[in-house]
Write a structure and sequence with these properties.
By secondary structure, this protein is of the alpha+beta class. Helix content is 25%, strand content 21%. The protein has 2 helices and 10 strands, in the order αβββββββαβββ. Strands 5-4-7-8-9-10 form a 6-stranded antiparallel sheet. A 4-stranded antiparallel sheet has the order 3-2-1-6, with no helix packed on it. It starts with 15 loop residues before the first helix and ends with a strand.
């Protein structure tokens, strides 16, 4: 028997049923694609900032070597074992454009003795002032796409196999450290830290005692920075 009930067609010849199915497909695709797009965008923010941090430490190492200077890294206690925004860790430029907290990186134009134990920490010369646009910084460019990135800084004691706060960590020519410890930088997205289950890859960098800078992915299961290629 011929079906005498037909779905109405629009001007282009599509039936109402076909249009509803098409709309459902588009809706389901959008529902799936948007979170994936958001995650890719957030991951790219982490990856781009990892590149900036690596570039910044290479630049700092070069300046220390060229000027035969020494620097000491001192981070506030609240940066240990927690993730903080860039302006509280590696960047000196605050959200309002002011230069602040530049005492996290104090440099001398000669050998450094110990900033923690001496009013005159430099052996033969004065402390290099950290004025706006000063010569020594962690980052070449600040406030550049870093608003959503969160940073965790630790010192890894290779002998004790433990993590410590970043206090009195010395960088000496040619960008090496006399302490034998590793400066560990971990990078994550602020939104991923709010998720019950992380969905992004946490990036990491290690500044080795030799001055070599390594980069990789942070492994939660082993508490290690797994270097690329390993």
């Amino acid at each position: 028997m011929r079906n005498i009930i037909n779905s109405p067609k629009n001007a282009d010849g599509f039936t109402l049923t076909e249009m509803i199915v098409a709309m459902l497909i588009v809706g389901l695709t959008t529902t799936w694609a948007m979170p994936q797009f958001t995650k890719r965008l957030q991951q790219s923010e982490i990856d781009q900032y990892q590149n900036q941090v690596e570039s910044g430490f290479y630049s700092l190492r070069a300046k220390i070597g060229q000027t035969k200077s020494s620097c000491e890294v001192n981070m506030p206690p609240e940066t240990f074992n927690t993730y903080q925004p860039p302006e509280k860790t590696l960047e000196f430029t605050s959200s309002n454009g002011a230069i602040a907290n530049s005492d996290r990186l104090i440099c001398c134009n000669t050998e450094i003795l110990s900033l923690s134990n001496s009013n005159n920490p430099c052996k033969d010369g004065p402390v290099i002032p950290q004025s706006a646009g000063g010569p020594f910084r962690f980052m070449v460019t600040e406030r550049s796409g870093s608003e959503n990135v969160r940073i965790r800084l630790d010192i890894y004691d290779e002998q004790a196999k433990t993590f410590k706060p970043v206090r009195f960590h010395e960088l000496t020519p040619p960008g090496t450290t006399a302490s034998g410890s590793v400066l560990l930088v971990r990078l994550q997205h602020a939104k991923d830290l709010e998720r019950e289950t992380p969905q992004l890859i946490e990036r990491c960098l290690m500044v080795l005692p030799t001055g070599t800078i390594k980069r990789g992915n942070w492994s939660q299961s082993t508490s290690q920075c797994v270097l690329y290629g390993q």
